[in-house]
């Protein structure tokens, strides 16, 4: 998620997106911590250029708000998990000479935090796919459709298909586990958090999120490299995607 800001900066540069939505005054007016941090980091990566559009699509204009919310959810999930990893969750809990029968074993806080985190990844990935779409569009890049090396070539079009497939998987993985439960042991154990399912789903989110961001990164690099460069024939982009994913996970 941290590297997504760097990827977005490439796209901002490739389409000459306005940095006005990143201005400190904007984020001081709505002091969400993740939003302000993302805006500041992205602002520091962009060169001062004159905007070519009054308002850009949401993939650019609302990047700090959406990605910042995802970063806030990730931070909160990390804190919740850290607390539980260092907590006393046994039942009964022995304190001094007393045994306290309790429900500290219930992993509802972890399940809810991981549910929120996975849900927050989807809008962030959706905006990445939206920026990818603008990189295919001459109206934003000033280049040929799909960043083709010549008129009629498919260029980087396949990246949209790959990104949307990964995004669909990410949406499936965002389904909340906290809405389910189980009643067992003759009704004594009458609720379940399914936090382990939330954790497994969170781990499975890494690959599709990486793929979406890698698609954007490959397209942004291609857009930035094209002006004045020799035309490139259509070719498979799997090596480019593998390289981009290694960079994102490095």
Automatic annotation (TrEMBL):
Gene3D superfamilies registered for this protein in UniProt: Fumarase/aspartase (Central domain)
Keyword Lyase attached: yes
UniProt feature, compositional bias: Basic and acidic residues: 232-250
One matching Pfam family: Lyase_aromatic
Keyword Magnesium recorded: no
InterPro entries: Aromatic_Lyase, L-Aspartase-like
Region (Disordered), start-end ranges: 224-250
Keywords from the named record: Lyase
GO terms assigned for molecular function: ammonia-lyase activity
Annotated PANTHER family: HISTIDINE AMMONIA-LYASE
Record-given protein name: Histidine ammonia-lyase
Organism listed in the record: Nonomuraea dietziae
């Amino acid at each position: 998620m941290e590297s997504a800001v760097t990827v977005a900066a490439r796209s901002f540069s490739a389409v000459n997106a306005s940095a006005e939505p990143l201005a400190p005054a904007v984020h001081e007016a709505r002091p969400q911590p993740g939003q302000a941090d993302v805006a500041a980091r992205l602002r520091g990566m962009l060169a001062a250029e004159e905007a070519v559009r009054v308002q850009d699509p949401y993939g650019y204009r609302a990047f700090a708000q959406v990605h910042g919310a995802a970063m806030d959810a990730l931070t909160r999930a990390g804190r919740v998990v850290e607390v539980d990893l260092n907590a006393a969750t046994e039942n009964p809990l022995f304190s001094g000479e007393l045994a306290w029968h309790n429900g500290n074993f219930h992993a509802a806080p972890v399940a809810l935090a991981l549910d929120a985190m996975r849900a927050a990844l989807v809008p962030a990935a959706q905006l990445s796919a939206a920026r990818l779409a603008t990189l295919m569009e001459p109206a934003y890049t000033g280049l040929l459709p799909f960043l083709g090396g010549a008129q009629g070539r498919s260029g980087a079009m396949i990246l949209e298909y790959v990104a949307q497939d990964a995004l669909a998987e990410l949406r499936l993985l965002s389904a909340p586990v906290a809405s389910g439960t189980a009643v067992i042991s003759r009704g004594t154990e009458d609720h379940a958090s399914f936090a382990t399912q939330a954790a497994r789903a969170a781990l499975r989110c890494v690959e599709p999120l990486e793929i979406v961001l890698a698609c954007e990164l490959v397209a942004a690099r291609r857009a930035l490299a094209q002006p004045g460069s020799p035309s490139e024939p259509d070719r498979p982009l799997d090596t480019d995607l593998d390289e981009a994913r290694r960079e994102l996970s490095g």
